[in-house]
Design brief:
Elements: E1 12-22, E2 25-35
Antiparallel strand pairs: 1-2
Length: 38
């Protein structure tokens, strides 16, 4: 659990990015999800 193969280009990785604006500034959230192969 918790392993992300950064060296493997062929790894199936899903990526999401969100930007949230608040009264204090801008907050960026990035989510990387590694999908293990079958």
């Amino acid at each position: 659990r918790g392993r992300v193969p950064l060296q493997t280009i062929r790894a199936k990785i899903d990526y999401c990015s969100y930007t949230v604006r608040t009264i204090y500034g801008v907050l960026g959230i990035k989510i990387w999800i590694f999908i293990e192969g079958e």
